[in-house]
Amino acid sequence: VFEIGTPERIVKTTCAYCGVGCSFDAHMRGEEVVKMVPSKDGKANHGHSCVKGRFAWGYATHQDRKLEPMVREKITDPWRIVSWDEALNFAADRLKKAQADFGRDSIGVITSSRCTNEETYLVQKLTRAVFGNNNTDTCARVCHSPTGYGLKTAFGTSAGTHDFDSIDETDLMLIIGCNPTDGHPVVGSRMRARLREGAGLIVLDPRRTDILETPHLGDSWHLPLRPGTNVAVVTSLAHVIVSEKLYDEEYIRTRCDWDEFLAYSEFLLDPRHSPEEVEKLSQVPADLIRQAARAYAAAPRASIFYGLGVTEHSQGSTTVMAIANLAMMTGNIGRPGTGVNPLRGQNNVQGSCDMGSFPHEYPGYRHVSDPETRALYERVWGVPLSDEPGLRIPNMFDEALNGRFKGLYCQGEDIVQSDPDTKHVTGALSSMDIVIVHDLFLNETANYAHVFLPGSSFLEKNGTFTNAERRINMVRKAMSPKNGYEDWEITQMLANTLGANWTYTHPSEIMDEIAMTTPSFSGVSFDLLDREGSVQWPCNEAAPLGTPLMHIDGFVRGKGKFIHTEYVATDERTGSRFPLLLTTGRILSQYNVGAQTRRTDNQVWHSEDVLEIHPSDAENRGIRSGDWVRVASRSGDTSLRAEITERVAPGVVYTTFHHPTTQANVVTTDNSDWATNCPEFKVTAVQVSPSNGP
Ligand code: SF4
What we know:
Blueprint: E1 9-14, E2 23-29, E3 32-38, H1 51-55, E4 70-71, E5 80-81, H2 84-102, E6 107-111, H3 117-131, E7 136-138, H4 145-155, E8 172-176, H5 180-183, H6 185-196, E9 200-204, E10 220-223, H7 230-243, H8 249-255, H9 258-268, H10 275-282, H11 286-298, E11 302-306, H12 308-311, H13 316-329, E12 339-342, H14 349-354, E13 361-362, E14 366-367, H15 371-381, H16 393-401, E15 407-411, H17 415-418, H18 422-430, E16 434-439, E17 451-454, E18 463-466, E19 471-475, H19 487-497, H20 507-517, H21 526-532, E20 534-536, E21 580-585, E22 610-613, H22 615-621, E23 628-633, E24 637-644, E25 652-656, E26 684-690
Parallel strand pairs: 6-7, 6-15, 8-9, 8-11, 9-10, 11-12, 15-16, 16-17, 21-25, 22-24
Antiparallel strand pairs: 1-2, 2-3, 4-5, 4-17, 13-14, 18-19, 19-20, 21-26, 22-25, 23-24, 23-26
Helix pairs in contact: 3-19, 3-20, 4-13, 7-10, 7-11, 7-13, 10-11, 16-18
Bound molecules: iron/sulfur cluster.
Iron/sulfur cluster binds near residues 20, 45, 50 and 186.
């Protein structure tokens, strides 16, 4: 007999929402969660949490979950519930047939940053060792792939350089294209506490975010740049620092290549990078750019945090490198209170990238063409491996529409809702012979699937997630999988149905293989994580308990690299037909496309997406707050209600993308980052007009 609220047992696990990676004590009674309590000893959250982690776990047992495998011949047929054997054989036969008819490279995988490290490792192993190609990609493609490219180029590793504890020691925070109090609330609260203590704040964002409303002692600046001009503004900050000689010469001479810096300085000093010139295209007053540059350079310890407002642009990778340049030239890398941190939107974006889910890299960011790494995996996996990079997600869609890509295993990702240009995605899926959706729910992508494999929630599995500060956190099984299997087991069953002979019996064995094959994880094991609570990679012989701060004595690549960051305007232009720029973001109570949070009580706080529009733009169109409006772009149109606000500047409109009824991605374009194909979700030319509703 239990008193109300008394748990039978407590299972320590990790929140499955954002990249902060809060630790929780799941208070369990039998197979029921009584409550989720943020762990006081959680190293990322120290006993704090937000409304998502604490209250929005009910989706895990929601009635909408599908618990049995299903198949259908054609996507117009009704689903047929079948045994696991039948579903796996159906999937394997069609995948084999696609390869027999259209070649080895005609099938691939899209995995998700929601999955554990161990699941992701197995999915990329399935692609490489069983499919025999490198056609594996991850939803990180559509969020932080430019971080992977940009930070690796500049510093030598694709990860945030400092930990969240550094916030308590920083003197100034430069926040670019992220809204931490909504998107990363526990980190946002920590930032607010530091602001109250007197730290300075610079926000580069087209929209006035809540962090700017924090009562604080220090100075703050909001640079409300026009969407699409990040590179120009960040490069102009560097222009001011160089022209006023505010850089840290000793740091640059010892940690970077001085001649390379001189060449970069020459590039920066060109008048086109001056605040006055950049004001003309970004609409940020030149004086604000100068003040912000001086404040960042003068701060003894300055930290940069950025988000998808940096990466989801046609120049996402260039902005990441411009940010890296700024931090290096002011000596703000490798000391407590300093650094560059890409705040990851999803629980395991970092881990998904670390685990080799990109088509060009093995786990640990080693290129598939590297003979030494390939030989290592050929030895461990016992099969020959391809040295050719595989297809990225948008290339898979293009190849499908060209009739050359015929089969997809999509795990934990609703690509129809979350990828740009929905019509392009659904056209590609419709043209495939086999689409396997492995998920908790029959999501929008499942409308185009032939096989549905029911997935398990974070409460039903063991494994690890890696947060935005490279912290590897344990996920522990609190209840048995309602579908019968943990997700890693399902991938193993599919691999074995296709002819492999995998024999993992627990995710700890998968982590042991990761440690054996990945230098930055060589010291990681479930035993260590149980003992320490969590560790930050690199965790190896040189750092047996992990590495909170990276690049302390030198950059991973040797000398930090300055890249010339030329601003190139996006192809997406406003004009008389589409005069406004639409940009997108998140709200505190909801999460991404809402598949989880919409199935919890959090729904009452935010039941629809709205369009924020400046009073002058609303007045010109005869729009009042609460009116239905039609948002039309070159790609498509959607309807939602208007909210009139001065948070956005004239000429800019903003919405969230949590509700499928809104389908914000119907209007977004298929422009993408030049280096990584990360979609340009943040800049879409639109027209807004009154409407009668959807
Ligand atoms: Fe922590 Fe993020 Fe989960 Fe909120 S959503 S509890 S901030 S990990």
